[in-house]
Amino acid sequence: MKYLDEYRDGRVAAKILLEIRRVTTRPWTLMEVCGGQTHSIVKHGVDRMLPAAIELVHGPGCPVCVTPLEQIDKALAIASRPHVTFASFGDMLRVPGSHTDLLRLKSEGADVRIVYAPLDAVRLAQQHPDREVVFFAIGFETTAPANALAVTRAAALGVTNFSVLVSHVLVPPAISSVLQSPGNRVQGFLGPGHVCTVMGYREYEALAAHYRVPIVITGFEPVDLLDGVLRTVRLLESGPVGVQNQYSRVVTRTGNLAAQRLMWSAFEVCDRKWRGIGTIPKSGLRLRYEFRDYDAEHRFEVGALETREPAACISGQILRGLKKPHDCPAFGNACTPERPLGATMVSAEGACAAYFAYGRHREEAVR
Amino acid sequence: MCLAIPGKVIEVFEDHGLRMGRVDFGGTIKKACLAQLPEASVGDYVLVHVGFALSLVDRAEAERTYQLLEEMGLLEELKVPEGPA
User: Fold this and answer.
1) What is the fold, at CATH topology level, of the domain defined by A1-55+63-304?
2) If one looks up domain B5-79 in CATH, what number appears?
3) What angle do CA A36, A138, A215 make, to 5 degrees?
4) Of B5, B33, B55, the CB nearest to A119
5) Secondary structure letter of residue A104 according to DSSP
6) Beta bridge partners of residue A31, listed in sequence order
7) A90, A109, A180, A296: which is deepest, by most CB within 10 A?
8) Model confidence at A176, in pLDDT bands (50, 70, 90)?
9) pLDDT tens-digit profile of A245-270?
């Protein structure tokens, strides 16, 4: 496919690798922020092509992973109600709550639907006026405009049997949280390419200046990722901090302003709890007050739920780049994608699940 | 989750006031909302995430990036000093 295949060209990848070897003079630890990048890196073995001096650690950018257990339990409580049709992106269906998951509820007769687009959930509500359609609105800034559109569209069309359970998170506060962690090892970042198609990268310029780290906004194909590593290492080796845009074919400095306006028309910033990490101030989005009628938490009055995570799980440290999957004794044994113990194993974009999917649980830690 | 795929806009239409398009992803055709991308028209490549077009794919930038990558190494070879005659 155009604009995909050419970024998987082994010839070009080999050239970039040679250049990375040439410019690297000492060890560097880089973090890719986005779970999509983590998945692509592990799938294509990008981390293993790099010189031993360059270590990639995996970031907190998997929204499915970091959706807190409380929100999953709320989703399950709402989806269990007989008059509810619960719509979700497919990735959320297998994520275990405290007692069950959406897929199991569906097999037991609950009306749980997978939708490709948030607008499809609004259409479901229009087609089934006798049902309460609830959409699980999760994601980062990439997904926020599409989810905002579903809410504003429902309001504009007068669709009253539609609401959203919101669990939205933001990338820049998570990067701050990583850099503020005691024992932080991350020296440079591959920035989240698709988040920046919406938001641009002005926020990342402020982060880079404040923490004095290089951030290279990077795409998702192997050639993009290698180019992102090369640019970050060049910045580290030559000293200047700042932001570079590797993904300039779709990312501009200001992003998509119309999409940002749409997002802020429905959402406002709030504190959010991240699974595995805990509460990060001003790190999430919630519906604005004028849309409270579309807020499933308001409509269904699901109260505060008590949840407990398994003590063995080290996902909080993995999400901050302090540890890697092989550092966990439970990885691949007590904890697998079928029976995940925590955040980084619940979705294919989590570091543990990606390592497992590509057979790395059968190996010793290589580095 | 933040997966977004580039595809070619093959049709633009209105759905109850919402600007929509049909987008071809290497033979698979899906609908996408174009409301936040008013500059996108038939023949353009757009980056689509959960049925929502996030940005145009800038052809000139795509070519420029790729050309830089392709030329890397080739130019380095030219820079290698010639051995003693």
Assistant:
1) Rossmann fold (3.40.50)
2) 2.30.30.140
3) 40
4) B33
5) H
6) A57, A189
7) A296
8) very high
9) 999 999 999 999 999 999 999 999 99
Beta-strand ranges (E) seen in A89-161 are: 111-114, 132-139
Position B84 confidence tier, pLDDT thresholds 50, 70, 90: very low
- In contact, A237 and A23? CB cutoff 8 Å: yes
Please give the angle made by the CA atoms of B10, B28 and A199, to the nearest 5 degrees: 70
- As given in the structure block, the two tokens for residue B59 are 């052809």
ipTM of the complex: 0.92
Q: Taking CB atoms and an 8 Å limit, are A250 and B2 in contact across chains?
A: no
**Residue of A243, A247, A227, A226 lying closest to A235 (CA atoms):** A243
Contact: B45, A157; criterion CB under 8 Å: no
- Return the amino acid letter for B33: C
Q: With an 8 Å Cβ cutoff, is B65 touching chain A? A: yes
Domain boundaries, chain B: 5-79
Pair A16, A223: CB distance under 8 Å: yes
**Among A53, A314, A296, which residue's Cα sits nearest to residue A154?**
A296
Query: Can you tell me the distance from the alpha carbon of A251 to that of A268, in angstroms, rounded to the nearest whole number?
Result: 23
pTM of the entire predicted model: 0.92
Could you report the per-residue pLDDT of B8-57, keeping only the tens digit for each?
999 999 999 999 999 998 889 999 999 999 999 999 999 999 999 999 99
Find the closest chain B residue to A63 by CA distance: B1
Give residue A336's region: left, alpha or beta (phi > 0; psi -120 to 50).
beta
Q: How many residues does chain B have?
A: 85
Place of tokens 């080796």: A237
